[in-house]
């Protein structure tokens, strides 16, 4: 439309702008029915871009058509040189916040036409970019990435090789304008493009202003003409009667019984109806019976109907013709020219359309459909005066828009006149046009009928104006369209007090599992009905409840088999407990997907809770029921253990838990018990079952693995045939085995749920123990850009931000993706769960320690010794915080994990090095030194009395020496080399061990550091010192937890008085300086109204 009106302005430069805009219209009409057609369109478009003329702008349509938002904008592409391009984005609607802006006196103005310059040809001609750009508005139905963020956060920054708005070039004289706020940016975007092109043509600012006013003026003239047509619908059809008669006289009309007719049979009619319809039009199907009923009332001779079919094919026309009454006439489908001419003459833009004429072809009204609906029995036929033929009325919305347009055009005319760009006679002409438009619109305004109820006796009737948009509401009852009324669900609040604090029998454990599951289900139902913030809070509650159950309430089974887990239990109770454990682990994994950036100690707590659940599930599964033992329990008890290796490279349990950062001292004790339980199973040479490996991105299952062997034995017990003998198309042996392993449709899965439950629990625990956030996992697994690689973007609606919470927790989904190997004996399986997330055995924060020397020294060697530190050339200086000598000292201390706590603490406590802890990396390192459990070794009274004594001084061996020992032991299983970890590890963690044996050497440096920070007591909450002080206070609180635990139950009686004395000193420092500082910060933040 803008191009059409600009082309009427008598200026060659403006006409050139109009030509650019009109050329873009053809491209905007492009359609691609499938990917092949879309590829063809892209290939043609690439050739067009490559062959562009230098310094000649080309307008390209763009925008997005999303599920919730939409916008149509224009790109202006220009070839700057043979190797560079520029792209201007013309947009004043959604997305304008990404454009450069400038504050004005009263408001912020933005650059509506923002340009990306100096784009390399290889990047600009990359069809991956243009395919995504066009797909945003071409592809239907819209997907989740059809939104403004895809364009401005992904595509355009890639093209500019910079984030926006810094990627836009401001130029020498940037033009800023006001952003739209009325959701009409798509119209102003075209005007913005026209303004940019006119500036490219060299038009001065004043001329552009006048051109845009003339554009507004011409549009208002067209509106006036349209209003006159609405007022008199026959106006466009004056003089068409001879052409209509000529067209109909030149063809033979037919009817539904294959008779032929001519125009002479219509000459005696009072009214002739030209009915434009189609068999595929639902509205036509509804209207045609009403029109037929009317023609029967007034007789066909007085009111004949001539159908002009607009069917798309011969079959559709045949069906249409057979559905017509025998008395109606029809233009044959073969008369294509006649049908096109009639459509053009009567300006048919929609169907059904019924044009009423007299016998001579003169048009009475083109609104015959409204006439039929208003007089369905023909009581006023042939609708002569005083009968008022219908006309279209303006709705309140349309009238309001016209009023706004009249006011804005009038104000613009006054501004143009004040600026000297509009003559006085032109101003008078504009005023006359505005007055005529206003009067015509007022006459056409839709007013409701004035009805006065009987009891009212008013002396004057006052019309009641309707609410805005009231015409859109039906006056009849519409409750039937709403569906059934949903029952309001009142959340059932389950008391957390029902969960016991301690259990000592198997029956109490079963009760605790049942109550915990009920509490979690209640919380999940409430989360499903809540907002995002409340849902997050409830998910945290679920995490706390399940963690408390598995880590604190239920005791970890003892390796000596002397606990209540081996007590008597029935098969039904056993399966019930296994099912509840499975459900809790599944819920645990689901709510953990809501956590964005967990701290290391929170990540370690999740890992510990899942490992505890695995140990309890294993011991419960191997318990033989007193009434009818499960066949699976019998098999497990004979020499199997549930797999407990983790990460993609199947790390051992001890290796996985070595770097756990546990700030709760009791959790460190529980960690030792879990390790002891599985170590006991290892001593008995139990074979791990369900040990799924993931060499790539899929779970690998081998035909001769322990898991498949276990499955075969279980099927033999139940007498299940591997392959049905009656199967006419039997699968291969490996396909059948994998189907029995993963499918929920097999008899094993349907009648023995414990198999699938165990498979899923082992898999979920392996995933949860070292889980990464989805963002971290995608970043770690990202690959480099490949040539011709298609872009695959997603805004996942199932992420924690956009997910509509669902109380029902779906189970894991196992899908076989293929088979490989020489004998096709290896299956690759995709496992997904937790709202569709694909399970990947990652390496989360729990296994990545800040004290890991290989990472600090940028080496792949495993066994780093002090000699390696002394001779390295890549000492980390932590952003210049440490000198080379200090870094050498610190890393040397990390090579001796059994004494590193006092060494590292003394390092930071001396020479004011506590201030080095301003560095976040050193903060993380110190916390890891203190709270990581490090090497583990089993110690109890029985072990102390055993013959396993130290036969030589334990040495820390190099990587080469360890490899030689492993080779020797592989050649002779009787050989056993003692390791340093065998005697220098601890049962419950390093910090508890140090507090038990050397409390002064451990806590003395901590007190020195806490006293040193008192010099910063006057620091503001907004200063850079605040984060450092908060870290130190937090560190002191966490250390005091361990001291309190050791002073009460974790240390021998002889050490406890010393620990109580040191705890009092530590508490005095924290509760004195720490609480006073926090209170001062609270008051300061409240006074500044800044509680972030």
From TrEMBL:
Residues 271-361 form the Thioredoxin-like fold domain. InterPro entries: Thioredoxin-like_fold (IPR012336), Thioredoxin-like_sf (IPR036249). One of its GO terms (molecular function) is thioredoxin-disulfide reductase (NADPH) activity. One of its GO terms (biological process) is negative regulation of Wnt signaling pathway. Gene3D superfamilies: Glutaredoxin (3.40.30.10). Signal peptide: none annotated. One of its GO terms (cellular component) is nucleus. This is Thioredoxin-like fold domain-containing protein. It comes from Aphanomyces astaci.
């Amino acid at each position: 439309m803008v191009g059409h009106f600009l082309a009427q302005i008598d200026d060659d430069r403006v006409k050139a702008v109009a030509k650019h805009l009109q050329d873009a219209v053809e491209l905007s009409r492009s359609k691609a029915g499938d990917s092949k057609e879309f590829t063809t369109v892209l290939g043609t478009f690439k050739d067009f871009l490559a062959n562009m003329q230098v310094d000649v702008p080309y307008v390209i349509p763009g925008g997005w058509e999303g599920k919730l938002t939409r916008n149509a904008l224009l790109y202006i592409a220009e070839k700057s040189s043979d190797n560079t391009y520029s792209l201007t984005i013309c947009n004043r609607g959604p997305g304008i916040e990404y454009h450069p802006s400038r504050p004005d006196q009263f408001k912020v103005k933005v650059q509506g036409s923002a340009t990306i310059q100096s784009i390399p040809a290889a990047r600009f001609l990359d069809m991956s970019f243009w395919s995504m750009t066009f797909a945003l508005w071409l592809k239907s139905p819209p997907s989740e990435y059809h939104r403004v963020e895809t364009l401005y956060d992904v595509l355009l920054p890639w093209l500019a090789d910079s984030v926006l708005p810094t990627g836009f070039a401001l130029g020498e004289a940037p033009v800023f304008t006001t952003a739209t706020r009325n959701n009409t940016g798509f119209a102003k975007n075209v005007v913005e493009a026209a303004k940019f092109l006119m500036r490219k043509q060299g038009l001065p600012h004043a001329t552009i202003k006048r051109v845009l006013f003339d554009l507004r003026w011409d549009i208002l003239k067209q509106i006036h003409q349209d209003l006159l047509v609405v007022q008199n619908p026959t106006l466009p059809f004056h003089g068409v009667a001879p052409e209509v008669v000529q067209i109909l006289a030149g063809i033979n009309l037919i009817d539904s019984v294959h008779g032929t007719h001519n125009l002479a049979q219509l000459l005696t009619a009072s009214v002739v109806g030209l009915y434009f319809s189609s068999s595929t039009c639902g509205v036509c199907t509804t209207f045609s019976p009403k029109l037929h009923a009317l023609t029967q009332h007034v007789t066909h001779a007085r009111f004949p109907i001539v159908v002009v079919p607009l069917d798309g094919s011969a079959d559709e026309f045949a069906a249409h013709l057979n559905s017509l009454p025998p008395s109606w006439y029809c233009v044959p489908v073969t008369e294509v020219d006649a049908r096109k001419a009639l459509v053009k003459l009567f300006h048919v833009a929609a169907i059904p359309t019924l044009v009423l004429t007299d016998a001579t072809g003169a048009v009475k009204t083109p609104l015959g459909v409204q006439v039929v609906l208003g007089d369905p029995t023909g009581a006023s036929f042939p609708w002569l005066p005083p009968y008022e033929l219908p006309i279209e009325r303006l709705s309140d919305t349309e009238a309001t828009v016209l009023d706004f347009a009249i006011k804005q055009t009038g104000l613009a005319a006054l501004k143009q006149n004040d600026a000297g760009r509009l003559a006085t006679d032109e101003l008078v002409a504009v005023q006359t046009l505005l007055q005529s438009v206003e009067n015509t619109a007022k006459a056409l305004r839709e007013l409701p009928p004035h009805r006065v109820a009987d009891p009212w006796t008013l002396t004057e009737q006052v019309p009641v104006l309707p609410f805005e948009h009231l015409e859109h509401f039906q006056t009849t009852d519409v409750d039937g369209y709403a569906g059934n009324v949903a029952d309001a669900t009142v959340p059932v609040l389950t008391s957390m007090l029902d969960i016991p604090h301690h259990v000592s029998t198997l029956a109490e454990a079963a009760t605790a599992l049942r109550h915990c599951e009920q509490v979690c289900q209640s919380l999940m139902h409430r989360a499903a009905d809540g907002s995002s913030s409340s849902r997050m809070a409830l998910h945290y509650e679920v995490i706390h409840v399940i963690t408390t159950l598995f880590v604190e309430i239920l005791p970890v089974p003892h390796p000596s088999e002397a606990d209540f887990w081996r007590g008597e239990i029935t098969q039904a109770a056993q399966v019930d407990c296994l099912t509840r454990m499975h459900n809790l682990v599944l819920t645990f994994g689901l709510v953990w997907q809501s956590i964005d950036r967990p701290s290391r100690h929170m990540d370690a707590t999740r890992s510990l809770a899942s490992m505890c659940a695995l140990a309890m599930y294993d011991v419960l599964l191997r318990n033989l029921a007193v009434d009818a033992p499960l066949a699976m329990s019998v098999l497990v008890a004979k020499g199997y253990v549930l797999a407990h290796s983790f990460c993609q490279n199947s790390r051992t349990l001890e290796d996985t838990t070595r770097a756990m950062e546990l700030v709760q001292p009791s959790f460190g004790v529980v960690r030792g018990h879990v390790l002891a339980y599985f170590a006991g199973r290892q001593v008995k040479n139990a074979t791990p079952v369900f040990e799924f490996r993931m060499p790539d991105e899929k779970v690998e299952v081998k035909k001769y693995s322990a898991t498949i062997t276990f499955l075969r034995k279980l099927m033999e017990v139940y007498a299940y045939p591997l392959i049905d003998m009656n199967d006419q198309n039997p699968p291969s042996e490996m396909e059948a085995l994998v189907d029995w392993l993963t499918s929920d449709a097999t008899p094993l899965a349907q009648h023995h749920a414990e198999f699938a439950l165990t498979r899923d629990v082992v898999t979920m625990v392996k995933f949860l123990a070292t889980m990464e956030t989805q963002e971290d996992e995608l970043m770690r697994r990202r690959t480099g850009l490949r040539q011709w690689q298609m872009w695959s973007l997603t805004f996942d609606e199932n992420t924690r931000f956009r997910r509509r919470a669902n109380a029902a927790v779906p189970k894991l989904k196992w899908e076989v993706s293929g088979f490989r190997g020489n004998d096709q004996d290896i299956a690759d399986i995709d496992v997904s769960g937790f709202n569709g997330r694909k399970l990947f055995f990652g390496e989360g924060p729990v296994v990545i320690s800040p004290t890991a020397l290989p990472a600090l020294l940028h080496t792949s060697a495993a066994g780093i010794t002090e000699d390696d530190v002394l001779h390295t050339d890549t000492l980390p200086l932590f952003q210049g915080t440490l000198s080379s000598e200090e870094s050498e000292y610190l890393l040397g201390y990390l090579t001796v994990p059994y004494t590193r706590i006092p060494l590292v603490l003394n390092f930071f406590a001396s020479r004011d090095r506590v201030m080095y802890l301003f560095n976040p990396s050193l903060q993380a390192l110190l916390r890891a030194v203190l709270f990581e459990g490090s090497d583990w070794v089993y110690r109890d009274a029985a072990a102390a009395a055993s013959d396993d004594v130290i036969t030589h001084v334990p040495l820390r061996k190099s990587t080469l020496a360890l490899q030689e020992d492993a080779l020797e032991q592989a050649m002779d299983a009787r050989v056993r080399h003692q390791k340093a970890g065998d005697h220098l590890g601890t049962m419950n963690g390093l910090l508890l061990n140090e507090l038990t044996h050397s409390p002064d050497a451990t806590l003395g440096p901590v007190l020195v550091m806490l006293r040193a920070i008192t010099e910063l007591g006057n620091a503001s909450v907004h200063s850079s010192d605040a984060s450092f002080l908060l870290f130190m206070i937090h560190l002191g609180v966490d250390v005091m937890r361990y001291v309190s635990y050791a002073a009460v139950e974790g240390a021998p009686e002889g050490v406890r008085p010393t620990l109580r004395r040191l705890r009092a000193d530590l508490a005095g420092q924290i509760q004195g300086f720490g609480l006073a500082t926090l209170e001062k910060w609270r008051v300061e933040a409240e006074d500044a109204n800044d509680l972030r």
